[in-house]
Amino acid sequence: MMSSATTMNDRNALALSPPGALTWLVLGLTVFLGPVIIGFMLLFLPGAREQLLTLCLVAGLTAMFGVVLLLVAMRRSVQLENAVLDIRATLYRRRIGLREIELEQARVIDLREHPEYRPWLKTNGFAVPGLAAGHFRDRRKNRVFCLVTGPKTLMLPWSDGRRVLISFERPAAALKLLRTQMGQAD
Q1: What spatial distance separates the first Cα and last Cα of the chain, rounded to whole Å?
Q2: Can you spell out the DSSP letters for 67-104?
Q3: Helix 21-44 crosses helix 52-74 at what angle (to 10 degrees)?
Q4: Which of 84, 104, 156, 181 could serve as 164's disulfide partner, Cβ 3.0–4.6 Å?
């Protein structure tokens, strides 16, 4: 029977691939872009000083929104406990029993070589360059739950046709761990 806690090796196998520099640049710009634009407006637009309070309020709200986006983007984890894969992807969470996943069909894919599996249409998700999290459709219009930060991705098909895409640092090791745990759960 499978233990209820994951070991250190299990946690290493489930380590996620970090988002790239472009992701953090885009989110960081969100924090600073509003105040910078409003600063230029105050300097160069006649009459902008009469709206100083409104402009400062907008700049502050824009900066706070950017900080919230940064914090949300950092909420990413995958845990395996009691034969349940718990995926936390920014604002979204999906708990999947290993029995629901067709592990014999699961595989590591490179999204550059298989663009048909890429998250394409966002149905309820969070997406910036280098990070796709939440509910999407792929190019074949299949429902996909994503936590994608890079091209090397573990594709886990569900028995009902949906898929899960997760970017692990070592996707082959994560797949091996899931298959081992599934064998222990039987």
Answers
A1: 8
A2: HHHHHHHH-EEEEEETTEEEEEETTEEEEEEGGGB-TT
A3: 180
A4: 156
Q: Which long-range contacts (CB under 8 A, 24 or more apart) does 80-85 make?
A: 80/6, 80/10, 80/14, 80/177, 80/178, 80/181, 81/4, 81/5, 81/6, 82/2, 82/4, 83/2, 83/181, 83/182, 83/185, 85/156, 85/178
Q: The pTM is what?
A: 0.83
- Domain residue extents for the chain: 21-73, 75-185
Cα(174)–Cα(21) distance, rounded to whole angstroms?
24
Provide the residue-wise pLDDT of the chain in tens; the chain has 186 residues: 344 444 556 666 789 999 989 999 988 888 888 788 877 877 787 877 777 778 788 888 888 988 998 999 999 999 999 889 999 999 999 999 999 999 999 999 999 999 999 999 999 999 999 999 999 999 999 999 999 999 999 999 998 889 999 999 999 999 999 999 887 555
121: which 2 tokens?
């249409």
How far apart, in Å, are the Cα atoms of 77 and each of 10, 24, 64, 167? 13, 17, 24, 11
Q: What does the angle CA 140 – CA 144 – CA 150 come to, to the nearest 5 degrees?
A: 95
